[in-house]
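Recall that a protein's primary structure is simply its ordered list of amino acids. Everything else, from secondary elements to tertiary packing, is in principle encoded there. The following example makes that idea concrete.
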Amino acid sequence: VQLQASGGGLVQAGGSLRLSCAASGRTFSNYAVAWFRQAPEKEREFVAGISWNARSITLADSVKGRFTASRDNAKTTVYLQMDSLQPADTAVYYCATDPSAYSSSRNPRSWEYWGTGTLVTVSS
């Protein structure tokens, strides 16, 4: 499975962005997908996870009420809608998938396939 994240950019605090994670491989539709982020000099942290059928969505406490995940399996694409962005959200965002992971799997080691990152910068 190959993943490609896109949609990052520069936005002012309070603004919104929607990230996309496009995948190759039809089995992607059967896998959970997670979003992680990594700020400079910080560890990679879990942001959101979505089950293969989108029935289960897990969000980090820091983004609850502001971010949400969705997916379109016909397009083999997963989305991360980010609203009310704050400077603390500035990071490189990555999507990941794995045949055995769950939407609630917060450990990066639980995810085998990773996409290229997309940079999100939120100015104050």
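The chain has a mean pLDDT of 95. The CA atoms of residues 5 and 21 lie 4 Å apart.
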